[in-house]
Amino acid sequence: MLSILRNTRLHGHSSRCLKLTVPLVTSKRCISDRNSSLDQNKIVDLLLKSSKMEPTKQNHTNIEDFNKNFVIHDTVELPDISNPKIPFPSIQFKDYDIADMENLGRLYMKYVTVKYVFDTRPHIRFNEAFNYTDTLLECASMAFDSRKSSFLEYIGQFCIADISKCNQYIEGFFMEDAKSSQLIESFSTYFLKITPRFKRDMVDYNLIWDSAVPNSTIELPSLEYAKHVFNPFLLVDSSNLKKFMSSSMFDGTQENTLVGDKLLDLQNYGKLMFEFYTVKHLFQKLDISNPLFIDIVKNLDSIFEDVISFSALTNVIKCPQYSPIIKDIRTKSNFNEIFYQYLGILDLNNKIVENSVEKWVGRLVDYLIANSSENEINFAIKFDSPSLSSPKYKKQKNLPVVPCLKMSESMSDKAFPHGYADSTMLDELKELGKSCISLAFKHYLVVNSLHETEYEKYKYEKEFIEVVGRHVNDSIKVKSITPDEFSNSDIPFTSDQFLGLYLIEDFEGCMSFLDQFFAGDYNPSNFEASASYIKHLAFQINTPIIRMAGSITSKDSSPLSLPPLSDNSRTTRFLLLNNAVINPSFGTYKNRNWKRNNSMKNSLHLWHSWGSLLYKVSIRHALISKSSQVSSPYIQELFKLLTSNNFCKYILDDSNNFNIIENTDYERLLMERRYTNSLINAQFSQYLATVQMSNSKTIKEWTSSFVELFISLIENLNSEEVIHLINTFTEKFKMHKFSLCQSFATNIIKNIEEERIVIDLPSINELNNEDFAPSEEMGKAFLSYSIASFNIHYGLDSFINSKIDTMDMIEVVVKTKPIKELLRSKSIYQYIGLLVDQKGNTEAQRVTYNFLGQILNSKAKPLNFSKIPNLNLNINDKVIGGSDFFVWGNAIQFPKIHNDALHKLLLVNFYVSRTFFQITRNHVGNIHELPDLCTKFNTIGGEFYKYSVLKHAYTYSSSGTLRLPEAILEKSIKLLMDRVFMSIVCYKSGILYDPFNHTDYSKLAKKAMKNNYFFLRFSSQSFRQYMGSLCYHDIDIADRWVNSIVNTLLDELSNASNIQKQHQILNDLESKMQKYYVQKRI
Prior knowledge:
Layout: H1 40-48, E1 80-81, H2 98-120, H3 126-131, H4 133-143, H5 151-161, H6 163-171, E2 174-175, H7 178-183, H8 187-194, H9 226-229, H10 241-245, H11 257-285, H12 291-299, H13 304-310, H14 322-331, H15 335-349, H16 356-370, H17 409-415, H18 423-447, H19 454-478, H20 495-505, H21 507-515, H22 528-540, E3 547-548, H23 570-575, H24 598-625, H25 635-642, H26 645-654, E4 661-662, H27 664-672, H28 677-694, H29 698-714, H30 719-734, H31 739-753, H32 772-790, H33 796-813, H34 817-823, H35 828-839, H36 841-856, H37 901-906, H38 910-920, H39 929-959, H40 966-976, H41 979-988, H42 999-1008, H43 1012-1033, H44 1035-1054, H45 1059-1080
Antiparallel strand pairs: 1-2, 3-4
Helix pairs in contact: 2-4, 2-5, 2-11, 5-6, 11-15, 11-16, 13-15, 18-19, 18-20, 18-24, 20-21, 20-24, 24-25, 24-28, 24-29, 26-28, 31-33, 32-33, 32-35, 32-36, 32-39, 35-36, 38-39, 38-42, 39-43, 39-44, 40-44, 40-45, 41-43, 41-45, 43-44
């Protein structure tokens, strides 16, 4: 890799070297008595390795072929050299070998000369500038008069001691006249002139200017003024130069050998510069006899490809023809050229951060030394673990002083519109205070990238909250820090309320106070460690570099639109990867697949949690600080509205946020999770956290602005009008059509219309139009049931959302021409209703599942029975209160089915399930999974029962010799669907109060049915869960039981001689149901 230049003897005096006045040099030397461990020639050979600095071939480029629209200043000759204006400064010599320093000094002089020439005369070739060093060395050596050291040793010591001053001093040798000064232009500007004009929209500039946080150790420094100096040819090797020139990135093709010549010059300069910086830093860190010194010198180039990939340089160019070029470069292991070219332009261009490239090379060498073991360097990029393994906070000593809280008059009026601290406001302040402690803690975790398990985070957070609360409470007891509004309050003033008030009065001051509880040099605005961690993690698991949309704000966006994201850096892009699309890792997926990686998921979840809490704290803070006598009673209702999942979904769509990332595979992942609430929460919260990282005031100001808007809407309304307005907003956000669902439906419709999806709906017999009405209602009920059972494998939130969206989607899909032709003027509900009537339940379900699978692009998946525990409970077969009821006799009882694990589980009513599973210790994993399963089967059972009642009622009425009057039929259906009837069935079947003969369950059930409303809610839940289990295990058994219930009642009605007697039968049934309800309700 390295090729320190061999000794060059100085022969004669150059004509460019003017006579110099030699200043007196007073150098101090601190040299040990040791001799050099290696002679000069061995050192040179060691540092040269095999890759010598090859002389560049003579440039035969024809100037006539250049772009005629600019002037190449090739008339500017190399500068003359004169006596510097100041004498050689005195420096403190360190204990380095003389020969080592002379070699370093020679290398430095070559580097600084070429850099100066390239900075001022970019048209000059590398060899000419390189050889010009001899002239500078000759003249400088003549000027240097010291018997204590040679000039080269002095310069070697000088550049180690202070390279900035050394640069300034050496550059003082060069003379510029008025003409040359006027013609000077930068290398970047010159290089852009000689290369073809490129399409700037094909360059992802944000990847080369990471503005959010400083670049990490391995990542190359940012290219300053990237949009003005970047040139795509910097990222192409010589073998692919011609092919790249002919790509679609350029407006026209151009055969220009000068481009190749200057790239070669840049490579040579970058290599020379990198060699110097590396050796200089190695001398500062290691003795030359250390084996690590030799290992780094020989093998450092083996890390270049990883550095380029880690820095995302291969993703900067968006031209489609660039991908095969990068593949070719990787195949040929030819990244060295790109590395030196890019590093060279960084060193020539970057001025804002002084010596940024030198500092980066130093960090790279330190990184390799730190990762060494037993005198061997591991050149693989290692995972950059967080410096802290657990949160560090003060517990007893050096705790921050609790300030005396004095509220301003204006803030007091808003927080206490009634002039005193009422209980409602105290509760709000308490919640705000507790939340701000947790917010400070989560912020600390994010900054230090501490994403332990949820249990670990909860344990530390709980202790931190206790430490803060105890300290503040102790201060309240001994100091007069209570605001006047609380002086006459009978309610004790707590630490949470104090912090809530403190946050209202001084948001930044309160958070700063909480930050002082953390030990060490904690800086809440420094996200460097966290950003570095996630970039290392993303590199390790091959996370793709995603593209960002130029602007995500739509033209018709509302005042609720998300604040703009000012930073599109690589760090930001990783942080915006929705946590919900990443699955936990299992087995071999752990370290190689970003879609299945626990570390990535946990890290993004931490940002998600911080962003979520930040938003809630900001909303509550704004609601309290903006409140008035009118709005303060509705703080809880407004908080619930503004933090709801539906509101967040509306804001995301209003801001076009799901289009912020341009990546087809990633969009597909979002589509797959479109029904999950976690997708919405993660998208919303991670975005806010990322914005907060760039600007700590943006989220607070944004939430304050739209909270003020909502409060202004209710200022002049009475109580009833306020509640109506809040309910109207709630319904609006609930009914909002989610963009991802609409996009998915659009894609499916397009595929159907283009016949890329062929819908299969078998033909059925036609019926008279008068038969379509009952078929429509029956078909809609069966479709609703089928959708619920088709999506049973979803999580609860997806299960609920998918049912609504699928019904809406079907309404649109069936309007496509291919499906309309299959339906033959029938609606999809009429078709399914007739299908059920003619083909039966099993065949109808098969056809419906196939149809759903085609339009949803998925398959019905069975339940995972491994997650269902086998409850160690005995089913109670004893029926209390007899089994007969009205006309049904024993038929009123549910049929018995196989008592497997699922059926036992569904006998546990949802409303007591969590507590009961905890008591019996029958929950495994997530305690919500089993109750969620009860809820899903409640939906399936209810939908099936509704469908089956309608089917058998309409079938009976249409097939009988004498049809029942419509009013009689409708009332019969209504009574059979009534929740009181459902409770009777449960009671007569022995599953209402105690399906297991278990004392704890019986107590919980009676407690859950504490009044009329809860009695019916509990009863209907038990009925639907049992019916769900029944139709899931055997749909025909379930259907026959419903048929028996319906037909028994309708037979009784048909036997009545007239409609009056039929009404009397139904009235008797309703009366008996009401009597039971009055007797059995708790």
